[in-house]
Amino acid sequence: MNLGFTIPKSGTLDLVSLGALIHRIDPGIIPFRKATNFAIHVSGGEYNVAANLADCFGLRTAIATAMVNYPIGDLIAERVRAMGVKPIYRRFEHDGTRGPNMATVYSDQGFGVRAPVVFYNRSNEAAAMLKPGDFDWDTIFGKGVRWFHCGGIFASLSETTSELVIEAMRAAHKAGVICSFDLNYREKLWKTAGGSDRARQVLGAIVENVDVLVGNEEDLQKSLGFQGPEIAASSKLDPGIFLGMIQQVVERYPNIKIVATTLREVHTTNHHSWSAVAWVNGHHVHAPTCELTVLDRVGGGDGFASGFIYSLLNG
Amino acid sequence: MNLGFTIPKSGTLDLVSLGALIHRIDPGIIPFRKATNFAIHVSGGEYNVAANLADCFGLRTAIATAMVNYPIGDLIAERVRAMGVKPIYRRFEHDGTRGPNMATVYSDQGFGVRAPVVFYNRSNEAAAMLKPGDFDWDTIFGKGVRWFHCGGIFASLSETTSELVIEAMRAAHKAGVICSFDLNYREKLWKTAGGSDRARQVLGAIVENVDVLVGNEEDLQKSLGFQGPEIAASSKLDPGIFLGMIQQVVERYPNIKIVATTLREVHTTNHHSWSAVAWVNGHHVHAPTCELTVLDRVGGGDGFASGFIYSLLNG
Amino acid sequence: MNLGFTIPKSGTLDLVSLGALIHRIDPGIIPFRKATNFAIHVSGGEYNVAANLADCFGLRTAIATAMVNYPIGDLIAERVRAMGVKPIYRRFEHDGTRGPNMATVYSDQGFGVRAPVVFYNRSNEAAAMLKPGDFDWDTIFGKGVRWFHCGGIFASLSETTSELVIEAMRAAHKAGVICSFDLNYREKLWKTAGGSDRARQVLGAIVENVDVLVGNEEDLQKSLGFQGPEIAASSKLDPGIFLGMIQQVVERYPNIKIVATTLREVHTTNHHSWSAVAWVNGHHVHAPTCELTVLDRVGGGDGFASGFIYSLLNG
Amino acid sequence: MNLGFTIPKSGTLDLVSLGALIHRIDPGIIPFRKATNFAIHVSGGEYNVAANLADCFGLRTAIATAMVNYPIGDLIAERVRAMGVKPIYRRFEHDGTRGPNMATVYSDQGFGVRAPVVFYNRSNEAAAMLKPGDFDWDTIFGKGVRWFHCGGIFASLSETTSELVIEAMRAAHKAGVICSFDLNYREKLWKTAGGSDRARQVLGAIVENVDVLVGNEEDLQKSLGFQGPEIAASSKLDPGIFLGMIQQVVERYPNIKIVATTLREVHTTNHHSWSAVAWVNGHHVHAPTCELTVLDRVGGGDGFASGFIYSLLNG
Amino acid sequence: MNLGFTIPKSGTLDLVSLGALIHRIDPGIIPFRKATNFAIHVSGGEYNVAANLADCFGLRTAIATAMVNYPIGDLIAERVRAMGVKPIYRRFEHDGTRGPNMATVYSDQGFGVRAPVVFYNRSNEAAAMLKPGDFDWDTIFGKGVRWFHCGGIFASLSETTSELVIEAMRAAHKAGVICSFDLNYREKLWKTAGGSDRARQVLGAIVENVDVLVGNEEDLQKSLGFQGPEIAASSKLDPGIFLGMIQQVVERYPNIKIVATTLREVHTTNHHSWSAVAWVNGHHVHAPTCELTVLDRVGGGDGFASGFIYSLLNG
Amino acid sequence: MNLGFTIPKSGTLDLVSLGALIHRIDPGIIPFRKATNFAIHVSGGEYNVAANLADCFGLRTAIATAMVNYPIGDLIAERVRAMGVKPIYRRFEHDGTRGPNMATVYSDQGFGVRAPVVFYNRSNEAAAMLKPGDFDWDTIFGKGVRWFHCGGIFASLSETTSELVIEAMRAAHKAGVICSFDLNYREKLWKTAGGSDRARQVLGAIVENVDVLVGNEEDLQKSLGFQGPEIAASSKLDPGIFLGMIQQVVERYPNIKIVATTLREVHTTNHHSWSAVAWVNGHHVHAPTCELTVLDRVGGGDGFASGFIYSLLNG
Lengths: 315, 315, 315, 315, 315, 315
Hints:
homohexamer, alpha/beta, four-stranded mixed beta sheet, 10 helices, ten-stranded mixed beta sheet
């Protein structure tokens, strides 16, 4: 299929992600207020893509991000190494008391009729302090990189992070690197970052630099201000609504060659029907539906983006 | 023994503490960077005194503090109830992303030659926003309270928390309530709060309102600027140095009637020798030495303050 | 909807329950004979209603019950405080060997085609020693109570507990408090307490004092001796059989203004379809059916009673 | 060494114990009132000897006891088989509610300065219902048994259990089987079983049938009414006091050929110095002292009895 | 129903199995490469039948197998005792380094769309060294045995194990003992044991001695070289294909009187539809279909064989 | 101090180890035969040195070893990455059944008077198949390596592994890389590898290529056949015996410039006194004694070698 762009055949790195590394406090199926024991996972929407590609698919990937010199930073750095992701760290010193911090996301797994609950402590987060100039993109991309990935979570962290995304994408394009962006619209994050108007302004500027966009119809509406369809979908697994919005997207952003999203019907917290749909340079691709027994839905969208990018990188 | 003051014989509450409630992330004996599972404990230097007095000694106690309406706040509130401590909460709403937060303290237990490691995420902490006027002290103390307790950790959180301590102590004294203060000097906290000079200024103003002071010679030096002794102690269990400093203390702060501290010789993380010494209105009291097998030393000083206050409340 | 009675608009307590506190030994999905580790939960059919209303719905509730002064009693008392339920305890001393005991219920969670197994050690149970005169109902209800709840489990424990239920309900009515009773028929409990004949006699006498009755058709038959319907239901979710029995109930007990029950189709231990139906002063109310992924079914009926009472208390 | 009796050289069973099987609820180092998770161990003072001899030393042993047909009984029976102990069960049916029960012992492990806490629910215990005639001793001993063991815990359970002990010992002697008895005086058990006077009467009658007696000076005083020594021991590891009492013992009970006990100095819950001493047919045997790091002291005395009997059986 | 053979009505043992005991390393639902903690289960296809019959159905069973004198052997022997299975061990000494070993099977539980992964370390396995002459079958069967069971896993371990199976079956038949064999075809095991040709040769020789054969159509094809049906089944629960192959089986092996198998439709790792079908001396028996919530599928076929044999033994 | 050789000041790798990677099955303080749950650790005497230097000291290290393509290999490879050790793998395919395997070491932690128990399943171990020619040493050392480390465990695995050690050391010396070797004499390993005579022959040939030798007096005697001292040491912490043997060592192996060892007095499994002594090019270095609370002694000697090499690399 003609993608509308050419992915470098080889490189020292298959993908570089730019995004925050966070530690997730996870009480499993117990709601937070009743829990006494927790697992800590290392996560981050943009990082997850680099991690999945390295750990599940054996690609060579890297994460450009902030790292704080304190034990939580060390914990996170060990897991990044374990996943086989090359670290490109801008380092910060912790003052012992208030930060800068590796952010915390609190998220349980939910159960049955109870959905997962997600909230953050991103106060004084090191990753939000990242700014243009912090990474030497020319050197990073100069060694041969095939793909650059970022997303809306990192873009929402501060004014400087969204500027950094654009800086990185421009450097990527200069080096012939394909750029993807996962809109990943999070009400909570943007609410404290200027609201939906600022989201649209910030994300709109970023998307002008994107080759491959990931996001569902709600992301397209809330992140970029596109109009939703006039007719109702027969089900959440119906790709019609999503595909019906693409014309607007590619008209405004002719640089975008691919738009893709998952389609999910959430029966219970532990049972989802999943499908996916992509608009690829004018063509429609619709995945078969899969019945999933779900242990923990957090990060599911990042998993989709990972697999989708893998298939593109693998031809 | 004549204490130099009179404790109310009865009241609806035996003690009210003022301080922050925090949640401790505890990986046990595993260092943070190697840990994957954690217990969450509810703690707080000032709260611990109220909790111990209620849970171990059956007294009626309360905690005046900040509480955030989000699941970590709910978790903390449940444990406060479980300990039998009456909550007096100034409530805050969480924005889902950056706070205000119930602070996090990360602390492992150490092992053998490895001491516990302690660091915080107190960024945008709700308790630091507490300020004079937030609590109706006249009503609180008006129902009959025997003792008020606070400490240096809470005083260090912000300009307004130290002002709030003084406001509370003045209201307490007006109502005939005894006031104790645990200096609890923490280098890390004051370093980001104006340093040792500000510590001395802030704590000095508070201590002018105190009847019972808890702190060792290092606390007295760093918190209040007293001079250390010229001669070396034969051991950390020797009460001489501590007692040698008291004259300076009571000259500058004649309101103080009791000064007490633990004396500890730390052989390994898991084996301490403990004693305690008090200057009580001119008399010296020296506890026998006890060999302790130590599971987790964090909060040990609060335990001492609890037992010491209990014995005073119990005559 | 006209309920046929008037619930006090306000009070210092929204609900007082009378019943036994027990500790549940729970091996999770492992059958008892293969298990080596267990969780202990604090439970009790009547207590669960007070606990759910306090913990989930934020009401002010209390439990009147027996409490034994020994470590298992302390464990239970801590959980009661944690749930925010006010304790009204008649206290007993433990002899170290044989009791009186806080009763044990052994109950696993079952799995798939294996249902949970439930059995007791209620021998020499403190709660069974409760008797008329043990609680000062006039004082308890005099401070303003909106609702009183009890159930068939507590009534079965001894001759004196059923007498105590009637004493409490009479005092409640005198104070204008609404009385609910959950029949909760348990074959095992009544088998050792005089059998079904005595159950009918005891429960019949209690129900004469009840405003709101909770129980399904089997409860109505076994507890109160009503006749079952002549025709078979199309499914366990069909409310017809239950509603068809109500005429008999309200004829014999005109004091009863509401009868309610869950309707459950148990597909496997981990998948139930739930609905509920109520006869409310001549009207029928039928809840929609909900597909539940079930972690642990024990206490499900108490959860229904809690939600049902909450909705009545909340208008 | 001449023991004063002759142990059968061989047999189908090396030892038969008579005693109750119990399940221990063990929260580890957490005190009960703070614990939420527990291990269940199968224990019983008399059983432990049979279990240790089978599991650690490879002997063929059996336990004669009560077994209840319910899941806790099944759990216990599996562990008995796992230990390689042959069951000789008198079976009881459980009524689902009150018993007869396999007794519960609640016992934590203590920590440092906190000693283990032990209490029971032996209400309506099946083993207490055992009585003369329940076991066919002639058949049991007729197949070749070398040793019979019982102890003071089982003897205290009821009037019939002490009678059963004597019945068993008489049958044992008739068959040439050596009889040992561990006094194991437990204040709590005898307090609810007629007190120390009854203990002396019951145990005195049993001891008339004993060849090998296990017990320290306190056991000898409280169980059998012997006078303690007039002089104080230099330490708990000094065998003098114990040996000084033996003369009284063998004068009153000339049938006793061996008396043995541990000598323990408990420094902390986790550090004991252990030794042991025995009077063997007129000779003194004194074991070297061993410094023990103690994980869980419960059952330590049974371990000593096991090793001591093993050494006698092994010549 | 006329089975075509007569099962001994009684015996000192209901069943003797011959097969390897292994220890399974089980990380639960976590894939091996991400796991850090594991349970060890004792397993073995042939042993599982003896264990289920003893533990679930209360029969008297035994396992004839190899046992190594080292701690993993001790661990395994304890579990065998716990299950109530009589051990008949040919013992081997471990050299501390390379064996002979009790084999390891590594098997997780899978989850949802991820099936369990199974692989082995059977290198230098003690059970593979078992050979004709290692067991005194005449004595074993001479004491009264009703049934002998073996299977294809044990037969694949070495040249001598398949010879031992035939030796045992011939001795069994001489003593009037019924012989069953579960084909249990495992690609991985035969691949390293001479491949499918050798499988057919070895298993064909064994099956000539079998009364009751367990295996599905795939087992029949791969183990014995029968031809599969020409038409496709409507579903995996359709017994047609299986029954259609029986004619070939009984023509070639007229000694076989019963062939039985499960029929399974695996919807996800955690949801199977199960049925079973048997050809019994010319008659067809088809079990109803059961929807199973599956915790761990490993050993499911052994469970079927156990229940099937139980029903035959129980008439 | 003049070491007698010159360590390269810099390089792309600070150290390369050659040795086997194994997975340790660890039941903690529970003896194997009683355990049901286990942790898996990745270990290996030679690897541990590379891992400690990377993880604790931040050096750049690598491990040259065998890696098997199967889930246990994947598990091990992830931990190697997590520790920050660069993998240099010779890869093997697993046959699903018998190997080649990543070896298993079974080792508990012991407790108090019970020492740890260690045994292996090294049957058909991939690392034992490593042989000269498997690694391209010239390329590995050509990129700049400062130190090469190996030990007696790897040397004992097979004839080819000891040859490989010599090949590697010769290549190292050619490239100016310092060579260390830890004798690590293991009775169990050599017993099945030709015994002590072969050990002496194999290890003697290796040691001719060594600059820095690690081993205590027992290692020197058993590995290399040196004579022990004529006089007894006052304690195991006395360095006299060790130093007294050095003259023999350096006379026979003049290439050796440093010999070092730990000195340990094992009071209990959980309490050791540790010291260390080194002969450095004619000088004696004796470390102070340290009282260690020991969680798990396995790998302690590797920890010493790591710290010792670190101090040499760091000048």
